Amino acid sequence: MEDPITEINAAIGNLARATSSIDLYLTVLLSEVVHPPMVGQDLWLASLMVQSQGRTEGRIDIVRNVIERELAFAFGQPKHTYPYKLAEFVLKAFNKVAAHSTSYVWVRNLASHGIVLTGETCLVSPQMADFTGAENLKRQRAKRGKSPLPANEQGFSATELLHCAGEIRSISQIGNLIPILKSIRLRSFEGEKLEAAVVQLGNDLQLQVPLQVRPHRQAKPKRR
């Protein structure tokens, strides 16, 4: 059986690596957008843009702003058209993934600067001066029934930290936006590959999928 202190330290490191994956996936997505459509990705420029912001929220805002600019053509179409609905879908998907993965970043901050309470089960707890971490922990525990985390009042166990790391890594779903964004940039709104990518992402994120072709309305039977 692994030593409890080693286990909690390993979980803290795992959580830190998971949080850094947010920057990675934001950079990869942005690198596919900040260049002409027929040219390869520009990781250097994308990394420069993402790292220009110190906070995760600011980095997400930069990527969102660039995506919105790329979607301007599609958003300029009538709202009932497929390009407009597809652009709306892309933005909703980006916002949903970003919001979910970053909702656990505060746990990383607490774990990085907290204190480890030793015992049969080690816990990482906020320091006395970490009022934000303590308040967030209190709010998290208040959910109890709705929360996927065990309700331990003093801090986070290694199991809980690993759970949070897994939730943060859901940011990887942002990569599934790349083929859809490419199609929009090339003004290409037809094809089985595009439809398959949209349907898969919609199913993964439980978002309503826009249809390429509107279903035909069946004619109402005439009254005799």
List the helices and strands and how they pair.
Elements: H1 4-31, H2 43-51, H3 56-70, H4 72-75, H5 82-102, H6 105-113, E1 115-117, E2 123-125, H7 131-143, H8 158-168, H9 178-185, H10 192-205
Antiparallel strand pairs: 1-2
Helix pairs in contact: 1-2, 1-3, 1-6, 1-8, 3-5, 5-10, 6-7, 6-8
Describe the structure.
It is a single chain. The chain has helices at 4-31, 43-51, 56-70, 72-75, 82-102, 105-113, 131-143, 158-168, 178-185, 192-205, and strands at residues 115-117, 123-125. With 224 residues, it is mainly α. It has one domain. The longest helix is centred in the N-terminal third of the chain and has 28 residues, at 4-31. The mean pLDDT is 82.
Top keywords for this entry?
about 220 residues, mainly alpha, elongated
Helix content: 55-70%
Radius of gyration: 22 Å
Total strand segments: 2
Main beta-sheet strand count, sense and barrel state: 2 strands, antiparallel
Please mark out the parts with pLDDT under 50 across 5 or more consecutive residues, or reply none.
none
Whole-number tally of structural domains: 1
Strand content: under 5%
- Protein structure class: mainly alpha
Distance between the termini: 80 Å
Helix/strand order:
HHHHHHEEHHHH
Question: What is the overall silhouette?
Answer: elongated
Number of helices: 10
The chain-level mean pLDDT equals 82
The strand order across the widest sheet is: 1-2
Quick gist of this model?
The protein is built from ten helices and two strands; from the N terminus they run ααααααββαααα. It has 224 residues and is an all-alpha fold. Strands 1-2 form a two-stranded antiparallel ribbon.
